[in-house]
């Protein structure tokens, strides 16, 4: 619901059509798509259905892509706030259409690279097909480390912003981004935990 409200508000309010708010809305849309994977996993967990990693990869192809997309988008949102705060003149000279298009293109490129690398590591072993289990082997650790590095970088930039006086100018958008990101992942973990506990043993 929170992600949907962000998208709606950004679409309806012209004063929210800044590059940063548009990036936040795109990231919110990505999170909505990712959360659609929960009913699929709940069905597999409840009925104790195991599928191969190959099958799980295709089932969660879109959903795991949105996780990668969203992770890199959060990184770019924090970078956007840092640019706007520390180098405002440079930031104002950026063409919004080209700027947003470049960020989205880089996010899709990141997704494509990982989709290929994950595909090359798939096996015929069985899995319950949790969204995070759409991969196997060494790529599981590569994917996890890449996500943690990007998340750490985003958090570090937010800390830099919070320590400066410029923070007050962007306080609302930054807090919104952080809150939605944390709350979205909380719901993901809560949904997965509920499915594990509710499924018959």
From TrEMBL:
Keywords, alphabetical: Membrane, Transmembrane, Transmembrane helix
InterPro entries (UniProt xref): 7TM_GPCR_Srsx (IPR019424), 7TM_GPCR_Srsx_nematod (IPR047130), GPCR_Rhodpsn (IPR000276), GPCR_Rhodpsn_7TM (IPR017452)
Where would I find the G-protein coupled receptors family 1 profile domain in this sequence? 2-152
Q: A Gene Ontology CC term for this entry?
A: membrane
Where is it chiefly localized?
A: membrane
Please give the superkingdom of this protein's source.
Answer: Eukaryota
Membrane-spanning parts:
56-78, 98-118, 178-199
Q: Name one Pfam family in it.
A: 7TM_GPCR_Srsx
Where found in the cell?
A: Membrane
Name the SUPFAM superfamilies for this protein: Family A G protein-coupled receptor-like
In its UniProt record, a GO molecular function of this protein is: G protein-coupled receptor activity
| Protein name stated in the entry | G-protein coupled receptors family 1 profile domain-containing protein
In its UniProt entry, the species of origin is given as: Steinernema carpocapsae
Which lineage ranks, top first, belong to the organism behind this chain? Answer: Eukaryota, Metazoa, Ecdysozoa, Nematoda, Chromadorea
């Amino acid at each position: 619901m929170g992600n949907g409200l962000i998208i709606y508000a950004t679409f309806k309010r012209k004063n929210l059509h800044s590059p940063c708010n548009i990036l936040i809305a795109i990231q919110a849309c990505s999170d909505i798509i990712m959360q659609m994977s929960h009913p699929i996993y709940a069905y597999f967990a409840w009925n104790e259905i195991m599928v191969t990693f190959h099958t799980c990869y295709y089932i969660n192809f879109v959903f795991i892509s949105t996780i990668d997309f969203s992770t890199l988008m959060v990184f770019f949102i924090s970078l956007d706030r840092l640019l706007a705060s520390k180098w405002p003149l440079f930031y104002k000279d950026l063409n919004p259409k080209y700027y947003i298009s470049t960020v989205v293109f880089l996010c899709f490129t990141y997704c494509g690279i990982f989709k290929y690398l994950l595909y090359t590591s798939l096996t015929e072993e069985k899995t319950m097909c949790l969204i995070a289990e759409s991969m196997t082997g060494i790529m599981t650790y590569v994917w996890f480390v890449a996500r943690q590095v990007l998340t750490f970088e985003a958090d570090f930039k937010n800390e830099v912003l919070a320590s400066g006086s410029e923070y007050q100018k962007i306080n609302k958008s930054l807090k919104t981004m952080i809150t939605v990101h944390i709350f979205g992942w909380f719901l993901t973990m809560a949904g997965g935990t509920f499915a594990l506990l509710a499924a018959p043993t």
